[in-house]
Amino acid sequence: MVSQYVLDAVVYASLFGLMAVGLTLTYLTTKVPNFAYGSFVTIGGYTSFSVFRINHVNPYFAVPLAFLLGAVVSVAMYLGVLRTLARRGSSLVALMISTLAIDIAFVGIFGIYSDYIGSFYRIENTKNFFRLLADFSLFGLPGLFYVTPISLATITIALFLFLTRTKFGIAMRASVENPSLARVLGIDVERAYVFAWFLAGGFAATAGSFSVLWLQGGTTFGSGLIVEIFAASVLGGLASVYGAALGGLIIGATEILLTQAGIAVFGSWISIYQKGFPLLIMVITLLLFPRGLVSINWQRITSPIAAFVDLIGDRLGEIFRFVRGK
Amino acid sequence: MDVPTFFLFGVNIIRFLIDLMIAFALYLVVSLSLNLEAGFAGVPNFGKVMFVAAGAVVAGSVSGRLAAFILGVNTHGNYNGFIAQIITQLDSSLSGNAILSIEILLLGVLLAAAIGASLGFLTSYPAIRLREDYLGMLLLASAQLFQIFLGGYEPLIGGTQGIEVPNLFGWAGNGIEVRDAVVLGFLALFAGLVYFYAERVARSPLGRTLRAVRDNEVAARALGKDDVAIRRNVIIIASAISAMAGALLTFYVGAVNAESWTRITWTFWIWVMLIIGGAANNAGVALGAFSFTFLFKAVDQVKFYFQGSIPFDVNWLEYLMFASLLILIIAFRPGGILPEKSSMTLPWRTVAEIMRPKSKVRANLGPKMGTPEPAKSDLADEPSSTPTT
Q: Which residues contact B386 (CB under 8 A, 6 or more apart)?
């Protein structure tokens, strides 16, 4: 039997990987940190919740719907607010505040929605609900243990193939790296950005629809996850979707494992500081290597180690020869 | 003695005004401090709630313990556990002791300022090194973590349940609304001082330096301004001011808990006031804070009429309303209602003195300004290259 904290670590890591990939996609295109991103996650959560509690359908069937809803809302936010404001020449800070405003608006929308379904369908606890007990079990382990890592792997590989093997994917990379040059080459940069936001919202909502099977949900549960989402994206460098996936994996796993280790060593009070670990990683990343994991010159770190190993090998060889010669 | 009542349309206007002005004073202080940071110095603080909450929490948890220590109330070694009993004893002792009450009040506020300043000092380390977007993410995430910490760490303020705070205005008597009126007096004094200070800073050479650092860091540095130290000091002062506001709010409410310190109430609403009113303009921010508070309280008064007819809580509409208002302001009036004014430089007397021929000031300014040499314009003498037909 696998311990609960290993399950937690795997599921958390995969979910944050998914969310960080989406956030990074939005940051790549608009260069504005999207504070409303957590609400996209909540959209997915409420989709699962509604489908399960109103229609009594397994939340896994809600995933495509969640993806679509999140994606459409995300595109609407990009076209309706961010692009409009950016074209009017709003500053970076103004754009950041506008994403914060959208997040607050979403809190209102989720509040209205939860009140509405609560009174209309006579469902209790619509504003804060316990995790949905609808997960299937395979070989004695919860389904999410398989589904979330597979989703993250599929999405990352699909993104890789899309960005390197398809014409539109390559055009999208060009639009991100050098929009002016891409425009000169006749690439529809706007279409690429809209598609990036479409995917980002979809990924967030997908992760959200999974996460209510594992975590408590509610009107602000997505906004509460932004500590981890930002930490994961920053660790990944905010410039690479693969980095973001890796960052999410690291953040999710370390948060659970370090908290477990802390509880084992210091006692259960350490669990209050659970979200402190991702924040700490984010601070360290920002101060030591602000461009994230992908910017680290691994060769510079690995080559001394390799040289050291070589050196030890040489010395051992010498000793060996010396001993044999004697 | 009671505060008189005056009813209009079924609303007690005096009660409404006292409520409104207390909220306005607190919001004014916090939004002015954000204006110092974000408006003048260009440090967008997306974690404002953290600083206000820090002051509130420290004042709330320390003032009661301190009062219990001074008045010799037995805490049984577990202050939070016996809170209700202790507060009852403290309140009865403090209501007859105005001097001690005010001393504890001032001490609590000063302590909050100290904690706010230290937190600001910590924040300044990343704040002067990171770009706005990274800083925004870091502060927003830190504030979120701080709220989670407050909710989970019970020895401080009892977590989400919260603790009561001794009533430091008990000496005002128990007439209806009298305590609130006294609190309003204190808050108005404090807000007035902060406004005066913010306005002095804005009009001083320091204010111009702040704007210079904000608008062009490299140029300011080239002119010998220590942009790092300036930013750091502004963050420390603004954080201390916000923490003091938090402490005063705690003393007014008479309780403190972790739930009330959300990103919406003390980060977002404050930004809304700043943007509506006009960043880097204290009068604008004051106007923004007043319009926001007035709208908010007015909606509070009327929303019960709608409550029955719609199937959800009317409060949610407030979120939508203010979010849309903010986006509309950013889109159509990015400077706010009262946009930033060009900065005041020298007093007009000095300017007049400089302009006067043979003035001493003018002579001291050196030959360049004193006697303007005729501009050497090579281009003007050259024949025009455009062919004349």
A: none
Residue A106's closest chain B neighbor by CA?
B320
Q: Where are the domains of chain B?
A: 11-261
pTM, rounded to two decimals: 0.83
Q: How far is CA B382 from the centre of its chain?
A: 59
User: Which residue in chain B is spatially nearest to A281 when comparing CA positions?
Assistant: B138
Encoding tokens for residue A257? 């494992």
Residue type, B300: D
Residues of B in contact with A94 (CB under 8 A): 275, 330, 334
Q: Which of A112, A115, A116, A228 to probe by mutation at the B interface, max B CB count within 10 Å? A: A112
3-state SS class at B164: strand
In angstroms, what separates the C-alpha of B202 from chain A's closest C-alpha? 21
Angle at alpha carbon of residue B191, lines to B243 and B22, rounded to 5°: 90
CB contact under 8 Å between A32 and B263, yes or no, is no
Instruction: Check if the beta carbon of residue A12 is closer than 8 Å to that of residue A253.
Output: yes
Q: What kind and span of H or E run contains B54? A: helix B48-71
Tell me the CATH architecture of domain A4-295: Orthogonal Bundle (1.10)
Given a contact cutoff of 8 angstroms between Cβ atoms, the answer to whether B232 and B36 are in contact is: no
Q: Nearest-CA distance from B71 to chain A in Å?
A: 33
Average pLDDT over residues A103-119: 87
According to the model, what pLDDT value does residue B376 have? 46
Inter-chain CB proximity B326 and A271 less than 8 Å: no
- CB contact set of B112 (below 8 Å; sequence gap of 6+): B54, B55, B56, B58, B59, B243, B244, B246, B247
Predicted ipTM of the assembly: 0.82
For chain A, how big is the Rg over CA atoms in Å?
Answer: 23
Q: What is the pLDDT of residues B155-180, one digit of tens each?
A: 777 777 778 888 888 777 776 677 88
Cβ count within 10 A of residue B360: 10
- Tell me, what's the pLDDT at B194? 93
Residues of A in Cβ contact (< 8 Å) with B318: 108
Does B130 lie at the interface with A, CB-CB under 8 angstroms? yes
Tokens of A43: 């959209």
Identity of the residue numbered B115: I
Tell me the sheet residues that pair with B7.
Answer: B12
- In chain B, positions 55-114, which contact chain A (CB-CB < 8 Å)? none
pLDDT tens for A33-63 read: 888 898 999 999 898 888 888 888 888 888 8
Give whole-number Cα distances, B32 to A91, A129, A230, B202, B376, in Å: 21, 39, 28, 11, 48
Element (H, E) at B163: strand B163-164
Q: What is the pLDDT of residue B206?
A: 86
Average pLDDT over residues B218-238: 88
Q: Which of B133, B312, B331 sits opposite A33 (nearest CB)?
A: B133
pLDDT in tens, A301-311: 777 777 888 88
Q: Which amino acid is at A130?
A: F
Residue B381 has pLDDT above 60, yes or no: no
B134–A286 C-beta distance less than 8 A: yes
Nearest residue, CB atoms, B317 vs list A94, A108, A227: A108
- β-partners of residue A137 are A142
Rounded to the nearest angstrom, the minimum Cα separation between B388 and chain A is 39
Q: Where are the alpha helices (DSSP H) in chain B?
A: 13-34, 48-71, 83-94, 98-127, 132-152, 154-157, 178-203, 205-215, 217-222, 227-253, 263, 269-277, 282-307, 315-332, 348-355, 360-364, 367-370, 378-381
Structure tokens at A262: 């802390």
Contact yes or no for A281/A233 (Cβ under 8 A): no
Residue extents of the structural domains in chain A: 4-295, 298-326
